[in-house]
Design goal:
The chain folds into 2 domains: 184 residues, P-loop containing nucleotide triphosphate hydrolases (Rossmann fold), CATH 3.40.50.300; 67 residues, no CATH class. 33% of the residues lie in helices and 24% in strands. The protein contains 10 helices and 10 strands. The strands form 2 sheets. Strands 6-7-8-3-9-10 form a 6-stranded mixed sheet, with helices on both faces. β4 and β5 form a beta hairpin. It starts with 7 loop residues before the first strand and ends in a 12-residue tail after the last helix. The mean pLDDT is 91.
Length: 258
Amino acid sequence: MSNAAPLLQVRQVAASRPGESGVLQRVLQETSLNVDAGEILAVVGPSGSGKSTLLRLLNRLLEAESGDILLSGETIRSFPPSELRLRIPLVSQKPFLFPGTVRENLQAPARLRRTERPDFSDPPLQELLELCHVDPAWLDRDARKLSVGQQQRVCLARAMVGPCRVLLLDEPTSALDRPTADQMALTFRQLAREKNLAIVFVTHDLRLTGRCADHVVFMANGAVVEEGPASRLLNHPETEEVRAFLASESDAAREVLP
């Protein structure tokens, strides 16, 4: 077993935001977790539990009130935000694409870094497109005229074209039909394993969680209630909060792949 430090380390991170009266309210209690390269972490729990806040803290779309987050042992505060978000990109719930072609969207990270634009005839980039199930025939099509599932795949590939080390996904399959969502779950597993990425995703979809997550964190009221291997937590939860959350889900929704 490797003794290498986790790729992503969250150390006692907390966050607050103004409430209706203007008084700061704690929305994330002191939270710690680790994610290794090649590992997929699912963050689940009821609405308002702090899941999305945690996700956005990981690439400084929100700033932590206290604690620290380390990428390869280095505090994320040491990176310019634009550079950090290329290393830790967020693919949002609703696909966001710039006006223009698929090719132009995939070249956006290079434009941000002011580096040479990628040539998609290069074998490594062809491999990336294949891994994300982006058809090269789409490259010169209007990106915003693709189907939602196709747009989501373009967003994934765009995140991967840059120097991505940790991929953040916010409800990545909520707008997709079940067959497409199941295919995306396999894509996430391939990306994590073949590119040695850490993936952190927030979801209400326990079928997705069971099909691709290695580890699960369950949150409620801004705090981690329970965490553990996906197979154990989804099938044999230890806390009443998690048992209640899972109670309405079918066995198929919690299917865990080997």
